Amino acid sequence: MRFCTLTVPDESKWDEKQNKMVRQPKYYHNEESIKNLLKYAVRFKENGEGVAYYDVMNLPRRDLDEAALEILKVQQCYGKDKGRRMYQFILSFCEDLDPLEVYWAGTVIAFEMFCDCQMLYAVHTGTEHIHIHFVFSSVKADGKKCDYSGRKFTEIKERIERIAYEFFHPSDGCNRIYSYGLGQTASMDELLADIRRNL
């Protein structure tokens, strides 16, 4: 059994060519979807699923409407306000883990993989598997558009799953250097020690 799995939410749509319903990734393509996706990631649901922790990178934390406006401003500034506007990845864990430690794993992943993105990430509990939603703009701080389709998604999926595994299993010989914070670097053992000192 795998330790964790990264997925992309999908939805059913009618395919005229195949003459049947098909599953395909959700495609966040308008201004309203930016705000809705940010709010979805941090809301509590009637089924008991809730947000244990959340944080942002390169966005205001307290006001999600303002965060959505900031994403929109960057996309418009670079003329990249058409097509896919947002991405959402969900990292689900197969083991019962401490939500705070999952939050810190999400923080490491966010800094390691998405430090140049406007992003919100949230740890959800109250479901069969604890999981993290990574919700981020399709436009990076340098104006380049993200493309996580096909082989590129497979590559980032493997990297994120490996980082998560190494976070919770640092003694398995995986002690590479991670970047986090303002230009700081540390091995996973050093990073975990620093995080646990601050818990």
Describe the structure.
This protein is an alpha+beta fold. It has one domain (4-172): 2-Layer Sandwich (BirA Bifunctional Protein, domain 2). The protein is built from five helices and nine strands, in the order βββαβαβαββαββα. The protein has helices at residues 31-42, 64-77, 99-114, 151-168, 188-197; strands at 4-7, 10-15, 20-25, 50-57, 86-93, 119-125, 131-137, 177-180, 184-187. Strands 1-5-7-6-4 form a five-stranded antiparallel β-sheet, with helices on both faces. It has a two-stranded antiparallel ribbon with strand order 2-3. A hairpin with a 5-residue loop joins β6 and β7. The longest helix has 18 residues, at 151-168. The radius of gyration is 17 Å and the shape is globular. The model has no long low-confidence stretch (mean pLDDT 82).
| Class derived from helix and strand content | alpha+beta
For the record, the CATH architecture stands as 2-Layer Sandwich
CATH class: Alpha Beta
What's the number of domains?
A: 1
Helix content: 25-40%
Radius of gyration: 17 Å
Low-confidence stretches: none
In order across it, which strands form the biggest sheet? 1-5-7-6-4
Specify the overall morphology.
Answer: globular
Reported for the largest beta sheet, the result is: 5 strands, antiparallel
Quick check: average pLDDT?
82
In CATH, the topology is named: BirA Bifunctional Protein, domain 2
Looking at this protein, list some descriptive labels.
199 residues, alpha+beta, five-stranded antiparallel beta sheet, 27% strand
Report a brief summary of the structure.
Helices cover 35% and strands 27% of the residues. The chain has 199 residues and is of the alpha+beta class.
